[in-house]
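ESCALATION

Customer reports they have been waiting on this structure for their group meeting. Please prioritize. Original submission:
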Amino acid sequence: MDIIKWGIIGCGDVTEVKSGPAFNKVPNSQLVAVMRRDSAKAADYARRHQVEKWFSDAEQMMDEAGINAVYIATPPAAHLDYALAALKKGLHVYVEKPVTLNAAEAEQMAAAANAGKAKLAVAHYRRHVPLFLKVKELINSQSIGDIRTVQIKLWQPRRPSLVADIENNWRLDPEVSGGGYFHDLAPHQLDLMLYYFGKPVKYQGFSLNQGNFSKADDNVNGQILFENKIPVNGSWCFDTAESEETDICEIVGTGGKISFAFFGNYIKLNDETFNFVHPPHIEQPMIEQVVKYFNDERSNPCSADEAVILMKIMDSFVQDNRD
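Update from on-call: job pushed to the front of the queue and completed.
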């Protein structure tokens, strides 16, 4: 197999443990170069992670580093331009979630990926984390019979512990992130719904800025109806009391219930509990599948076309307030 030689665009906090080290730990994969606009931080990252080359300009890295793939880990506002540039140069692309600011941008990215020879995969990495694969197994084996309803609740205080506490909280700037904490966290949850239940036929919702502590909406509500007649109801609130902090998905069927936390380490099947230890680098299982895809060993583990559907759902949940 070919060695996939990676360059990271945006070697910030998200790449320190979750993803960055994994590129040197999966077969046929090597992290060759990193880029960050702050040259001192790029150099420091390269030194600490034993990466040979570092850059402060993405175009220069793509042209000079000897790579054949990029991992785009910048804030979402930059995803589209970097992905289009990489695809045009014939480089494979692995891009973080949310894939873009909105569905219209996602469609542009998907069109470019489908038109060229280079490949693109989206970092909805929970698809290959053992806990979430176990949920899929329990669903497919009808461990709770026929599914009748799915309920998602993610209620958090204004400074969620689920989100990195950084000085410049770009996640709360819609022009950079696409929205607020909903746009940062909900893609993990909603992508799993697509992965588990298939094709959505209807989706709608609304959003509110109740707390006015940022420009982003802090309360989002939405519904999805899937082709197989499974309804999903979601509630996201980022201005609750700490005592009301909640992260749960409940899948209720004719024969019982599956419960799990999207950002936790357990599954409950009726009265039985399964506990999990996540991989040290939680994106490593997905990166391994992406490398196989780039080497023609498997199909795309998460395509841009799938991400377009996800972004359309997210847009529909927040569109009322944007209008």
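Sent to customer with the following note: The chain has two domains: 4-125+283-298, 130-278.
Escalation resolved.
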